[in-house]
Specification:
This protein is an alpha+beta fold. The protein folds into six domains: about 5-60, Helix Hairpins (Orthogonal Bundle), CATH 1.10.287.610; about 85-310, D-amino Acid Aminotransferase, Chain A, domain 1 (2-Layer Sandwich); about 315-390, Beta Barrel (OB fold (Dihydrolipoamide Acetyltransferase, E2P)); about 445-500, DNA polymerase, domain 1; about 500-575, Orthogonal Bundle (DNA polymerase, domain 1), CATH 1.10.150; about 595-660, Rossmann fold (3-Layer(aba) Sandwich), CATH 3.40.50.10190. About 35% of the residues lie in helices and about 20% in strands. Strands 13, 14, 15, 16, 17, 18 and 19 form a seven-stranded antiparallel beta sheet that branches. Strands 2-12-11-3-10 form a five-stranded mixed beta sheet. It has a five-stranded antiparallel beta sheet with strand order 5-4-7-8-9. β4 (about 120-125) and β5 form a beta hairpin.
Length: about 650
């Protein structure tokens, strides 16, 4: 019999090799099914021998628990933004400045395709992936390690003779095929579409559930190799070659250029062929190759003098607005859409374009019948750029006074651009309302996912969130892929959800701006849901952290008749409508404000928060002058620096437990 430890090591290496072949080199040797067999074998062996667990195992790409939010982390060195060149003349001006600053010394450029994604830094210690940070403002980004771990083209372990501790910066992107599949799925579920692959990639990387990120099939292309915050090689081209040798995905469409004419040729070549690429690009990035010359050229106040982004012009066409319709999205937002006389833009026939909101229509001075210029933003979703000629006749557009889907009340809050339907049971947003209601951290109804909700709503079995509580075994077993045992489990989980506390119920209603934290403050202040529903705007604002915007959203929600009916049905179903305060008045931590950061030795963040609140304390998300203590664990991030600047005391888990025991 083969030694389990040896078999685990061999399986890990084999799976890593196949990941590299499939995700980086695009040369798969086995089918997905064969890959899954190897993965399941490794999962079984690791489960049987947990002492052999390793964070860089292919089985560890997707974590199990959703996060509450993202921690801010400082970069080892600034992540750069670049100046733009919008035409050949500006590109040649950049080259002239480089030549003058280098005093006639010879120099070369590296030209790379400018991929349209989300910039990210991947950190490695001892050759193992340990952290991923988004660009943020260039100095501080967000820790997205668990989500980045799901990207199969990002190696979890690297074998290299040159360095063990390094940073591979690059771009998280979504290719066209994945983007189209994602939007098709969202169309089927009645959700709003992503505008372009960049937005889809950024949104996917910042999801709180890594499992969902994994399903989005992101890619990671690297373009900088750093050691201790500085370039690891003498030339940028060498860095790209080294990253490729280390097993990272590096865009093969790059060129080492001897002069500006070579760059212009590269830019022209890919402008005409960009539609052939599997991913979106919006230009070319040009960098001086020599790192010594990069240092000599230095930086302006905003960007390096040794690099520039050549931006391709947007693809535009002229057509006529034949009508303006209104779509209702998953959040209830009413979005005006221009119905266009069909026109070809960049090889695609366009007949609709988003107008975003009433303010955008007013800004454009647009009316039905006008001739307009449209462009494909990011070469994907068309938008109206400007009115090129007034129509004859022309008809002004007005937003409907009621929801065009359900006839419910629509509101436009002060300071908001969007008009929204506030009926939770509006068919346009019902599926999303149910998924939110049943999600983890809310009512936590396991088994009520997208596939089941689609069937329940599409077949007319569920017409309101409250209908979940009247489902029967017969109704469920009549659905696809739902046997008696699965149906019974779903019904059991629905019944269990009735025991959840009032804050969970408040959060589950899907009231705009009211999340888990605000729901707790409302329950603590009012004690029952009926009191919240009957409260005036002034009374609502007396609850902790409830300002005018949140109060207005609550007030409008409970004055929509469809929502009042929903509340009555949930009460009849037996959900919890009253709240017994868990905060101990006069407890050992009464009135003390804490911030939690990093991984504590024995307590989860939720456990620490519950203990503090039970003792009368308060947990806040950011450090301020009002903070009394910062409780820090491993890898605490930038909150420690802010605490030190403000003179806030930093303590450990042991100190917190001693305070709780007093």
């Amino acid at each position: 019999m083969k030694d389990p430890a040896r078999e685990i090591d061999e399986l890990r290496e084999e799976l890593r090799r196949h990941e590299h072949l499939y995700c980086v080199l695009d040369r798969p040797e086995i089918t997905d099914a064969e890959y899954d067999v190897l993965m399941r074998r490794l999962q079984a062996l690791e489960a049987a021998r947990p002492e052999l667990a390793s964070p860089d195992s292919p089985t560890q790409r997707v974590g199990g628990k959703p996060r509450e939010g993202f921690v801010k982390v400082a970069h080892s060195s600034r992540m750069l933004s670049l100046d733009n060149a919008l035409n050949e003349g500006e590109l040649r001006d950049f080259d002239r400045r480089v030549g003058e600053l280098l005093g006639g010394a010879p120099y070369r450029y590296v030209a790379e395709l400018k991929m349209d994604g989300l910039s990210m830094a991947a950190l490695y210690r001892g050759g193992r992936f340990v952290q991923a940070i988004t660009r943020g403002d260039g100095l501080v980004g967000e820790d997205v390690t668990e989500n980045a771990r799901t990207i199969r083209s990002l190696p979890l372990a690297v074998k290299t003779a040159t360095m063990e501790d390094f940073e591979a910066r690059g771009e998280a992107v979504m290719n066209r095929r994945s983007f189209e599949r994602l939007n098709a799925e969202r169309d089927e579920r009645g959700l709003s579409r992503f505008a372009n692959p960049r937005n889809a990639a950024a949104g996917s990387l910042r999801l709180l559930e890594p499992q969902v990120t994994a399903s989005r099939r992101l890619d990671y292309y690297t373009y900088f190799l750093l050691s201790q915050g500085r370039p690891a090689m003498d030339s940028h081209w060498q860095s790209l070659e080294e990253l490729s040798r280390m097993g990272f995905k590096v865009n093969p469409n790059r060129r080492l250029c001897d002069g500006v004419d070579d760059i212009v040729d590269f830019c022209s070549h890919w402008e005409t062929r960009r539609a052939e690429l599997p991913y979106e690009i919006d230009g070319v990035v040009v960098k001086v190759d020599s790192v010594d010359q990069q240092r000599a050229l230095g930086f302006t106040a905003k960007a390096p003098r040794w690099a520039i982004a050549f931006k391709y012009p947007a693809r535009q066409a002229t057509t006529t607005v034949e009508d303006i319709g209104v779509q209702v999205g998953r959040t209830g937002a009413l979005t005006p859409v221009a119905i266009l006389k069909p026109v070809e833009v960049g090889g695609v026939t366009v007949s609709r374009a988003t107008l975003h909101n009433e303010d955008e229509i007013a800004r454009l001075s647009l009316a039905i019948g006008d001739e307009v210029v449209i462009e494909r933003s990011g070469d994907v979703i068309p938008k109206v750029v400007r009115v090129s000629a007034l129509g004859s006749p022309r008809r002004p557009f007005t937003m409907p006074a009621a929801c065009p889907v359900c006839g419910g009340k629509v509101v436009r809050e002060e300071g908001e651009a969007a008009t929204r339907c506030i009926n939770t049971n509006c068919p346009a947003r019902l599926k999303e309302s149910i998924l939110h209601f049943a999600s983890r951290g809310v009512m936590n109804i396991d088994g009520v996912g997208g596939a089941l909700v689609d069937q329940l709503v599409d077949r007319g079995i569920v017409r309101s969130v409250s209908d979940l509580y009247s489902l029967t075994i017969v109704q469920l077993t009549g659905l696809d892929r739902m046997g008696p045992k699965s149906a019974a489990n779903v019904l059991t989980n629905i019944a269990k959800s009735k025991m959840h506390s009032l804050p969970r119920v408040i959060a589950a209603l899907g009231i705009r701006f009211v999340g888990e934290r605000t729901a707790v403050f409302l329950a603590e202040h009012f004690g029952n849901l009926d009191a919240i529903a009957a409260a005036s705007l002034e009374e609502l604002q007396r609850a902790e952290e409830v300002g005018p915007k949140v109060a207005e959203s609550l007030y409008e929600f409970f004055r929509e008749s469809h929502n009042r009916e929903l509340v009555d049905r949930l009460r009849a179903a037996g959900l919890t409508f009253t709240h017994e305060s868990r905060r101990s008045r006069g407890g050992p931590l009464d009135g003390i404000h804490f911030v939690l950061t990093g991984a504590l030795p024995t307590l989860s963040r939720e456990e620490a928060k519950s203990l503090i609140e039970a003792a009368g304390g308060k947990v806040v998300g950011s450090v301020s002058k009002k903070t009394n203590f910062v409780v820090a664990g491993a890898d605490p991030g930038s909150k420690i620096e802010k605490a030190e600047k403000l003179g806030v005391e930093v303590i450990g888990e042991g100190d917190l437990l001693r305070m709780l025991a007093t």
